[in-house]
Amino acid sequence: MSRRWVVSAAAMSLAGVATAAFGATRGQDGAGVGASQGPSPASPIPTTPAIDRIDQARTRIEAYVRRYDGHLAVAALDRQGSAAVTVGVRRFETASIVKVDILAALLLRQRSQGKALGSGTRRLAEDMIVSSDNAAAVALWQKIGGSSGLTAANRALGLRETKPNTHWGLTTTTAADQLRLLTALTSPTGPLTPQDREFVMDLMKQVIPEQRWGITAAREAGNRSVYVKNGWDTVDVDNGRWLVNSIGRVVEARHDWLIAVLSDHHVSQKEGVRVVEKAATYVLKELRAATAGDGV
Length: 296
What we know:
CATH class of the domain at 1-14 and 89-210: Alpha Beta
Helix content: 25-40%
CATH superfamily of the domain at 1-14 and 89-210: DD-peptidase/beta-lactamase superfamily
Distance between the termini: 54 Å
Number of helices: 8
Largest sheet: 5 strands, antiparallel
Shape: globular
Mean pLDDT: 86
């Protein structure tokens, strides 16, 4: 390929901003009346308006993302609750996060043909995700039928804003669409079988240590239930500046987060990684705080 794709560790309808909210009103029934000689009825206690803590968190996350002037987009949702937020509608080049999409397309194609993955194909899939092997990605890209095959698979996966490119790493996508992909890869009602979903998550959990940056920075201390795929590269049309993306899943005691962070226009790869990790950490921190009393 003419460009270098380097990758390190690593439904919904969301476009721009989507949130889920909760809250409660509280009050007291003041309808009781005493005896004829007793006191007059107590005045009702005014209700307190529900506080939409998710919406407040979204507002703060929007302000955080706005600092990057369109070069950062985030999306996250909790599969165990109602928290969801997406900020940023711009399409970014995928770099190698598209390899997760390629794997999903491969699994859908094999199942439609009534075939399981052969041992050789499974090894290619493992190499493509676990160590981000580009040669393996090229082989599987050809196996799914390239751009047309990915387009067909994305319709089944519910993606709406991902545009495949003949050079797979130049595929463009949005944070919302990456969240749709992650949802399809984890939902029991999605198009993949339980075995295929487990296969994808298992590979994302095994990504080699030196490539496990990105959304993994947002995990709680001691938590090892993290699934990740990252991508980064320089962008010719942006004067060689860096794009850095991270998608994945963080499973905790009270939450099952799906999260995507896309970014570009960084002066270095190191700076891009720093921005992505800070953004992922900030988003989950805000959403955890907003749902701290949920279910209590």
